[in-house]
UniProtKB/TrEMBL annotation:
Name the record gives this protein: Flagellar basal-body rod modification protein FlgD
Location of the region described as Disordered in the Swiss-Prot/TrEMBL record: 1-21
Family named by the database record: Belongs to the FlgD family.
UniProt KW keywords: Bacterial flagellum biogenesis, Cell projection, Cilium, Flagellum
Organism field: Alkalibacillus filiformis
Comp. bias (Polar residues): 8-21
InterPro entries: FlgD
Keyword Coiled coil recorded: no
Taxonomy, superkingdom: Bacteria
Pfam family, one: FlgD
Amino acid sequence: MKIDESLMLNQQSQSRQTNNDDLGRDAFLQILMTQLTNQDPLDPMDDKDFIAQMATFSQLEQMTNMANDFTGFMENQSYSNFLQYSNLIGQAVNYGEFSDGELEEELSAVVQSVRKEGDGIIISLDNGEEISAEEVTQIGQVDANDEGDSNE
């Protein structure tokens, strides 16, 4: 039986590289087709082996789709959190000032703006400070009397 030299690994070009180290759907199909094309006609692949390989391909396809869907879900969830925090604009928030892991003082300020930075949400306050959204301990309405007194 003659072996086609173009199928040897050292003869194949390395130009077709993927951006990750995992075998993808196309590579799996290519391997399967090569295996089916080059099988011995007198000793064909067992049907159980073929079904097992197709089941593996089906699982690979489902995992790929699920990973893509999950990535999209995480992006949407992050954006949804950002939009929820934007409702804090104009609201008074309490937050703690910590030193060496201990609460030094609980402060209060009015939220001026909210921005997304990486995976976190940063809240800009009217006192010039910027805090992480996780630092907020209480949310309330701005008292018009207190706001007027602080400006005098």
